[in-house]
Specification:
- The protein is α/β, with parallel strands linked by helices.
- The protein has eleven helices and eight strands.
- It has an eight-stranded mixed sheet, with helices on both faces.
- The longest helix has 14 residues.
Length: 266
Amino acid sequence: MATATVNGTELFHELRGRGEPLLLIQGMSGTHASWGEPFRAALDAAGFETVAYDHRGIGFSAAWRTPFTLAQLAEDAAGVMDAVGWESAHVLGISMGGMVAQELALAHPERVRTLALGCTYSGGPGSVLTNAAVAQELGAAMMSGDRERALRAGYEVNVSKAFAAEESNWTAFREMATSVPAPLPTIMLQMQAIAGHDTSARLASINAPTLVVHGTEDRMLQVVNGRAIAAAIPGARLEELEGVGHMFWWEQPARSAELVAAHALG
């Protein structure tokens, strides 16, 4: 565990494992802890050296109060690679992190060995952001001031109904979510950045071998988004996980690591 000065701020990052370098880019409100130990351990076993980090203003990274774009977060991702001494790496981005990964692959193609995009969105024709009912449910919970309500609402819309029905799964999620701070003002800035995201017209220029993973029961970003991205990136492969929600790596850590490893390592 370490911090590094990246583009004018201190970013926390955690390097572990041995093998091929894999940069992990988390989504909105996500932190290094949001990958979960089962998934990280499966990546270790698959032969990756991984770095997970906290975006500016969240987790153990320094506080941040001014707006940013996803392109700027992509420069942060490149800066984390510099901090750990990687000239290039395999890249896995999920949700907002998948949007950041798109920008990284477009701005710095030479640094991305392979690209894996999970439960994410490109903007433009054929893309769909979170529907109004789900957004209102989350917004009301977040603004209620009741942390337990906010955590539970976030959990229930991010996993499938079948997964949420098992109480032990909630216990593990809650423990993770309360272990690292996720300040509401930073989440609002992330939402603002997402609203301006649109790579749809540029995806055809991505030349990194690309895997797109999406759960069919994703309520945050519907599976049509994954299909649109896979159709737009030349040679991209789409893997749909039947009955799985937004946090597919949380619901199916072994299968998710297997897909990433098969894609990156062959």
